[in-house]
Design brief:
three-stranded mixed beta sheet, 11 strands, alpha+beta
């Protein structure tokens, strides 16, 4: 027993020294390991939200067409991206067959847009412009324009894929409005009483439209779409500054600008008649700058 005592004391001392060094130095190691694990947990990548995508989905009673594809648009654009997929083309054909067989039905087309998008179109908002572009495609492919209605809806939740919005268009079929004739008559009277008037600077033949003017464009477009044989007239005017013949030409340029603007936004060129009256039909005195500014105008109204 006496011989083993030094050996036992040595073991005890070794254990005590080892314990001392472990708690003195390795506690820092354990803390560093825990901190490393925490950092690793904190740098887990966050999953990016999926782009918003609306299907080409139309339902009415027993009729239904639904594919995970649609008309697509770039941000701040009302031009349909081409070419369309085969699914969308098939959807247009299916919808055409249904509407031609049910001429009492109307397809409501709603275009969606974000508040941070620019609106280069002639319509009050980009959603309405997109719906109009889709409507024009449907009409060009055999769907009667009288069986279409267009709307715009703000939706800031739209998330693009890169620079493209996937299918910011929704559809709904409903019964035609029995009072549509009265509504069109009221719209006709409103356009005649309050035509679209564009004012120009001296020598200028181009202009940016206000929101109110864009709404008038939308009203004119809607009326021309719904009424067979309807057309509009675009008349350019100038003040009396300079040569009359030159002013007649300038008035025509202003009328042509307005027509090109309307055509670029989906109104058929065949439904627009242009002319110029130059300085011959002033609505105010040419003796003052204020009066001359009122005379430099283009008037768009119904025939």
């Amino acid at each position: 027993m006496t011989k083993n005592l030094p050996y036992l004391l040595g073991m005890i001392i070794t254990i005590l020294i080892g314990t001392f060094f472990y708690f003195t130095y390795c506690s820092d190691c354990r803390l560093a390991t825990a901190e490393t694990e925490q950092v690793q947990e904190e740098i887990i990548p966050v999953k990016e939200p999926e782009p918003t995508s609306f299907p080409f989905s139309v339902k009415d009673g027993e009729y239904a067409f639904d594919v995970n594809d649609n008309f697509n648009f770039d941000l701040s654009s009302s031009s349909v991206l081409m070419p369309l997929s085969e699914n969308v083309s098939n959807g247009v054909e299916s919808l055409k067959s249904y509407l031609l067989e049910n001429n009492n039905k109307v397809i409501n087309i709603t275009g969606l847009y974000r508040s941070d998008e620019d609106n280069p179109s002639a319509f009050p908002n980009l959603g309405l412009a997109r719906a109009n572009a889709v409507k024009n495609y449907l009409v060009a492919n055999g769907i009667p324009s009288v069986q279409t209605s267009i709307f715009g809806k703000l939706m800031d939740e739209l998330l693009p894929l890169d620079n493209t919005l996937l299918g910011p268009i929704t559809y709904e079929i409903e019964e035609g409005n029995e009072n549509a004739g009265e509504a069109l008559e009221a719209l006709h009277d409103e356009i005649i009483a309050n035509p679209l008037v564009l004012y120009f600077q001296t020598g200028q033949a181009a202009i940016n439209l206000t929101t109110e003017q864009r709404q008038k464009v939308a009203n004119i477009s809607s009326y021309l779409d719904k009424v067979e044989g309807a057309s509009c007239k675009v008349v350019g005017h100038t003040d009396n500054t300079g040569n009359r013949i030159t002013n007649i030409g300038l008035g025509q340029e202003r009328a042509d600008f307005a027509k090109a603007y309307l055509v670029s936004n989906g109104i058929s060129a065949d439904k627009i008649n242009t002319s110029s009256q130059g300085p011959d039909s002033p609505i105010a005195t040419n003796a003052t700058e204020e009066g001359r500014s009122k005379n430099r105008r283009t008037v768009v109204t119904l025939n």
